[in-house]
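Researcher: Next sequence.
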Amino acid sequence: MNDLTEPATALRALPPSCGPVRLIAVDGHAGSGKTTFATRLSAELDGAPVLRLDDLAAHEQFFAWVERLRSQVIEPLSRGVSARYAPYDWTLRRFTAPRPLPPAPVVIIEGVGAGRRALRPCLARLFWMDRGAEESWERGRRRDGPALSAFWDAWTTAETRHFSADPSRPFADALVTERQTGYLIRTGPVTTARADQTVTQCDQLPPPY
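Model: Next structure:
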C-alpha cells in the first residue's frame, strides 16, 4: 500500500483509547523510518499532533521516560484537556519550556519504545517499522555522521537491552515496510493471534486495514 489515505480513514474510525483521543504509536529500531512515516501519516490525518519520544528521553534516560509521559501527556489527554510536556534539548542537555499537545481525535506517538508494555493499554493502534536492527542503525549512523559515533554505540546497547526486556513487534497491529514508492502495510502479529488471546483494553479494537 503506497497511499496512506486508507490507513488514515481506518484510524479515524477506531474507538478512542485515551479519553477522547485515539493514541497511535509508531515504533521500530532507531533509524528505521519512524519519523518520516509518522509525519506523512499526520499529514494524511489533517495535521494530527505528533509527539516525538526524543523530546521525552534524555542522555541519562534513554528509556526511563514512562512516568514523564504518563504525567505530562497521558493523564491530561485521558481527561480531554491539553497536555503540556517539556521537550529535551539534546545539545543543551536539559529540558526546555513546555509545549502544548491538544486532545485531538488522533494523536501520534513516535519513537523507539512507543509500543512498550506500559503504554499499550492506552493505544488504539501500534505500527511497527519492519526494518531490521542492523540496517536501521546503519542508516541512523550515516544520517548523523561520525561525530555521533559514541552516542550511537551507547544507544544501540541500550536499545538492544530495552527490546530484549520489553519487545514491541510481537504486539504490533500492523507492520510497515518502506518502499521507494511509499509504504506496504501488513497485518501485524497481535492481530493475527488476537482470536486466541485473552481480550484486553487494547485488543478490543477492530483489525487493521
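Model: Strands lie at 22-27, 50-52, 83-85, 88-89, 94-95, 99-101, 106-110, 123-129, 174-179, 182-187. The longest helix spans residues 149-165.
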